[in-house]
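Standup notes
- DV: blocked on the single-chain target, sequence here:
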Amino acid sequence: MSSAPKAGEILRRALRNGRLHHAILLYGNSAPALEAVARDVASLLLGRPCARHPDLFELRPEGKMRLIKIGSSADRAGGDWPPNTMRKLLRDIRQSSALGGRKVAIVHEADRMNAESANAFLKTLEEPPPDTTIFMLTTRPNDLLDTIRSRCIALRVESEPEPLGDEEWLEWLEDFKKWQKSLMGGIRRGGVSAAVMGCYALVARFGSILGRLADELSEMDEDAEDELDDEMLEAVRASERRALRKRLLADVEDACVGCALGGNGVPAVKIARAVGALEKAAAYMELNMPDAPAMEYFMLSSLRIWAR
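- DV (later): unblocked, structure below
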């Protein structure tokens, strides 16, 4: 195990020494882990738990395209920018602190900024408001503009999420491995329909399990839900579902590779192609393709790869 300091320790040490950078990019595989580090340091900066603090400002992607929007002038109400938009965030952090102390901004899924939002945000990074710390959280740091990344202190947040012990999910993984194993070496006469039916059954079960787990594993408490409007709540839920889906797909990859390696004489090129198909399906999901057709693409690709 590495003895390198963890991201949270580095940030707390920098804060104690008065050397905390104004813009911090936290990246890693787990969105909840990124948020936990940001909130921990934000609480230290604000002098009390950051939940419901008037000087904590958050921005999340929303809408069908899951983007961080700039904010339209046509939607301004009472002279203010629409909530949960980049212009609203930038206006808020340039205001004086409500309690006379520091201000903290957290941009969730920062890679989801559209071009307008990214350019407006870049100007603020170049000329940051006084006594303000900005956290950017992302599981896809390479999707951020180079000019944004270059103006931040970037820290990787290591995380080892606990394996999902859900019985239905573990059963799905076992059935997936049996299905894949049945294809390896070719399909016997009359077995095509059974292989295809098995494929679509697994796709349907995947969607059902993902939806149930997303509801059961939500980390928001009722008080936090009450404070969010419908659009913000939907954005939080979508982020949680996205993180959960990523964990499930990692399990699918492990099952796919493990099953293939357990066979005799499986060409490495087939394993690489199967993993590539899964990665492509995951990329489709990130581009807002519904889960079912994306998983269908992976499963049908697997059928062609292993049955030849």
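- Follow-up: The chain has eleven helices and five strands.
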